[in-house]
Design a protein that fits this description.
Chain lengths: ~350, ~400
């Protein structure tokens, strides 16, 4: 039994100040500029003249405590025990000693953690749980990330792209990874309506909530003894019904797979943030190495790298050359699925005579 | 299944080779301290064979007095993989900016070695530390050890989700407000709403220090707080000349790419018409040593971003174009309370704030939260004539 009198709750996260390197604490809010010292290496200089060096390495995001302890040991050895993680799941070691950079980088690389991900590189892929730990996944997450980054690792450890390139992966439309504003988004998709378990629905679900959950009204009160009916041609496989009712599974080994989206960004630099747009509607799941997905992503990256101007993000490049040329240059087939037919569809139709020939 | 103590996992073993760090190697490393990882490898191999996941829909599990922070996870093949029959996720609220000491990481590792799989995500999508996989009976003991060590659970379900912040002023010269402090204070202010889901759906807050938006606030947060400045870009002409000498083409790389073309370069002097600057960060990104955000710092407040579920993805929309840095916390609390009041009353089940705005209309939403309409809120005025005039304004 838990002793309720001693139970601690609602304390919130620990205060970050105790985790800051003394040089960071001293110069908090006083940073003046930064310089790149090479891929994965940053030097920030304060108004006071103090410097803090950051060494950024890749991580698979899914980390065993053994690896975290290894990072902690390296932080003790080179960084007085201070480190952080980035918003894209990289590890960043922080030191005020420039001489520590080279041996730290060396140890990380020897242990299999590439150093890079800064400036005009591909940073780590933000991703979701996939088959490792999720119930609604239309594909795996970690496995595809591993295969795509194996192929693009040189783009992580060098900074030779026209601009930064951000790849994200979500294993279903719920998008725990919020991939909808990425230069390249890899998105797991279902393609079959839910298989209704009529016997289970009333036992495990609230039927009115289930019916209300469908954004297209495809779930109706049942007829002929069924609890609910699904108007299959109205279903776009979002999975919202499954989220509110486990008796509506969509998983389907042959019909689940991957779609690829391009040209989104969250930064406001130059142009406003943009959504990613559909490039490839469907690629089947091909574990363990997903060769077609890897090939498709590498192709888009390489065509972009060859054709975009300096500072142009993927979406800016595509807008300059136009979508017809994007499909021509990448060799990706344009289909009826690329034309929007959901709620705000008209915003993506071409409504001018401005065309490139 | 066992073969000399080693399970055959021929498919996922193929994910151990190659230059990128391998998550399969990580799971195998964790076997050293947690036998459950062996069953996890087995189930993953099964998924790779059958091309389908083997986790059941979450159940309601948690720690006493909290309505979130733990995601129930059960194997749908528990007979085959009994050690992961329950394999729940715990979300632990990370420190602002994801800063740690080696000591604090070891504390977390030791707790997780005693009570769970030894597998983590550093970090989950919302930003929490993720402890991946434990049994129901271990939840309360893990929680007790976490709180004793100064950590608490993060959010899940229809609650205030764990807020997150970019590195901010801790190590970035571009942060126009103290993102980590605001994030920490907002998180502590709403502990009840974070741990006991009270809302129609989730509510996320993300703090980015500048318009580069490293935590994707504008794409992912119901309340996006993005740093900006009001006065002139600070300019160091000698440093501009240095960049020019080093090969930056000031005209082509900087002036021509300015979205409002507010910059001029005559070969020796860069001039900026700051009245026309939209604070996009491009020129500053290119020449961080020469150009800096101004001194009158603050943030723009936007509302309503979300991923596609349900009505389609949305970016956040401008609510308050500029809040001075020292008024951000108070403004955030005030705006949050007004939005929650209306959303609690009128939001449908599983309706995010952005969708509520779409459904009732932005103008009605502004009335409801008591904000006056201003032109900064729109990219253009309406282009259709179907106006719902209010009765008192009809003549």
């Amino acid at each position: 039994m838990v002793d309720m009198s001693k139970r601690i709750t609602d304390i919130g996260p620990p205060n970050y100040e105790q985790f800051l390197h003394p040089v960071i604490k001293k110069n908090y809010g006083q940073w003046k500029y930064h310089e790149s010292l090479g891929p994965g290496l940053l030097c920030h200089t304060s108004e006071s003249g103090d410097k803090i060096y950051s060494v950024r390495c890749a991580s698979p995001r899914l980390l065993a405590i053994q690896s975290i302890r290894f990072f902690a040991d390296l932080a003790d050895k080179y960084c007085d025990g201070y480190l952080r993680f980035t918003s894209r799941n990289n590890v960043e070691f922080l030191t005020d000693k420039q001489d520590n950079i080279a041996p730290l980088k060396d140890e990380l690389q020897k242990a299999g953690y590439p150093v890079g991900g800064t400036n005009n590189a591909i940073s780590n892929i933000v991703h979701t749980q996939g088959w490792v730990h999720c119930h609604s996944a239309a594909t795996d997450a970690s496995g595809i990330v591993k295969c795509v980054m194996d192929a693009l690792c040189d783009r992580f450890t060098s900074e030779n792209l026209p601009a930064k390139l951000r790849i994200s992966l979500a294993c279903c439309l719920n998008m725990c990874g919020a991939v909808h504003c990425s230069d390249i988004a890899i998105l797991g998709v279902h393609r079959k309506p839910p298989k209704v378990n009529q016997e289970q629905v009333p036992k495990v679900c609230e039927v009115p909530t289930l019916i209300a959950s469908c954004p297209t009204g495809a779930i109706r009160p049942g007829t002929e003894g069924r609890v609910v009916d699904v108007v299959e041609e109205q279903c776009m496989y979002c999975g919202n019904c499954y989220t509110v009712c486990p008796a509506m599974p969509l998983n389907d080994p042959e019909n689940d797979g991957i779609s690829i989206w391009v040209g989104g960004k969250v930064s406001n630099a130059r142009c406003a943030p943009k959504f990613s747009k559909l490039a490839i509607p469907f690629i089947p799941n091909e574990p363990p190495r997903w060769p077609k997905v890897v090939e498709a992503v590498v192709n888009i990256v390489e065509v972009y790298a060859k054709n975009a101007k300096k500072f142009e993000r993927m979406g800016e490049w595509i807008e300059r050359i136009g979508w017809p040329r994007f499909f021509e240059l990448t060799g990706i087939e344009f289909t009826r699925y690329h034309i929007d037919d959901f709620k705000f569809a008209g915003t993506t139709y071409a409504r001018s005579a401005q065309l490139r020939y | 299944m066992a073969d000399n103590g080693n399970r055959k996992t021929e498919l996922i073993d193929q994910l151990e080779s190659g230059p990128w760090p391998s998550f399969v190697k990580e799971i195998k490393k964790a076997k050293e301290t947690s036998p459950a990882c062996d069953d996890l490898l087995g189930q993953l191999e099964l998924s790779y064979n059958q091309k389908v996941g083997h986790w059941k829909h979450g159940g309601i599990v948690g720690v006493m007095g909290y309505g979130g922070g733990v995601i129930g996870r059960y194997s749908d093949v528990p007979e085959e993989f009994p050690a992961i029959a329950h394999f729940h996720t715990m979300r632990i609220n990370m420190p602002s900016g994801w800063f740690y000491t080696s000591k604090s990481l070891r504390t977390l590792c030791d707790i997780w070695e005693r009570h769970g799989s030894g597998l983590t995500n550093m970090h989950g999508s919302t930003g929490d530390i993720i402890f991946l996989g434990t049994k129901t009976a271990e939840l309360e003991p893990t929680f007790a050890e976490l709180t004793a060590a100064g950590f608490d659970l993060g959010g899940s379900g229809s609650c205030m989700r764990t807020p997150s912040a970019c590195v901010g002023q801790a190590r970035c010269e571009w942060a126009s407000y103290d993102t980590m402090k605001i994030c920490n204070e907002v998180t502590h202010e709403y502990q009840d709403e974070l741990h006991r889901p009270p809302f129609p759906y989730k509510f996320k807050v993300k703090c980015s220090g500048c318009a580069n938006d490293c935590v994707a606030a504008i794409a992912r947060a119901d309340l996006s707080i993005i740093g900006t400045w009001k006065d002139d870009i600070r300019q160091d002409d000698a440093a501009v000349a240095e960049y020019a000498a080093k090969g930056i083409d000031i005209q082509k790389d900087v002036c021509d790419l300015c979205p409002t073309k507010c910059m001029g370069w005559d070969g020796s002097k860069l001039t900026i018409n700051n009245r026309e600057c939209v604070h996009c960060m491009h020129c500053i990104n290119v020449m961080p040593k020469a150009l800096r955000p101004g001194k009158e710092k603050g943030a723009v407040f936007l509302l309503g971003a979300k991923a596609p579920i349900l009505q389609g993805a949305q970016l956040s929309s401008v609510m308050v174009p500029f809040v001075p840095a020292d008024e951000i916390l108070e403004t955030a609390k005030e705006l949050i309370s007004r939005v929650w009041d209306f959303w609690d009353e009128y939001g449908n089940n599983r309706e995010r704030v952005g969708e509520l705005i779409q459904r009732v209309g932005m103008a009605n939403f502004l009335d409801a939260i008591g904000l006056d309409p201003i032109p900064e809120m729109i990219s253009a005025p309406r282009d259709n004539p179907y106006i719902f005039f209010k009765e008192e304004e009809e003549e």
